[in-house]
Amino acid sequence: MPFSGSRAHLLTRRGPGHSTTLEIALSFPDLTTDRLVLRHWSPEEAAAVVADERRPHWAADFPAPGERMIAGLLTRDPDRPHGHFQVIERETGLTVGGIGLKLPAVDGALEFGYGIVPSRRCRGYTTEAVRALVAFARTLPGVTEVFATVDPANVPSVRVLQKAGLRHTGSVPADEVTLHRYVAG
Question: Which residues are in the N-acetyltransferase domain (predicted)?
Fold first, then answer.
């Protein structure tokens, strides 16, 4: 999967409890797979989602609630580095979801999350996007681990992580549920 782009610089910060937080400032490339392009969210796309301005290159059911939340975060703090990408179906050029790195990495561990709109599920797109993002994340300076957390009751999401080659390594308490942690091998 081809990707290119320059890595601008890396800042090291001390996190809570003396952990090291890595804040990465990057020029994010498009990540291209057989059927998808993962494109870094532009300020214009985020603003259009927040303003509820439909774009012709969005799938009919895009944006989903997750993308609305991400767009809101991006418009509230546009100067903060972020690792969020729109998932674009190459065949149609339609935006069909989102996937993102939760920057900054802490102690070398970088978390990611994802979502594909219902009309494009069960096509293997999410697994394909996860594989591309994980491969890219592993190239980032200071990143030693790439992981995701998932509600074990969300069986389709668990299957995505398993098919993408991540392994279950433990549990993480969350608000009202215990999440399972999956790490890229």
Answer: 36-185
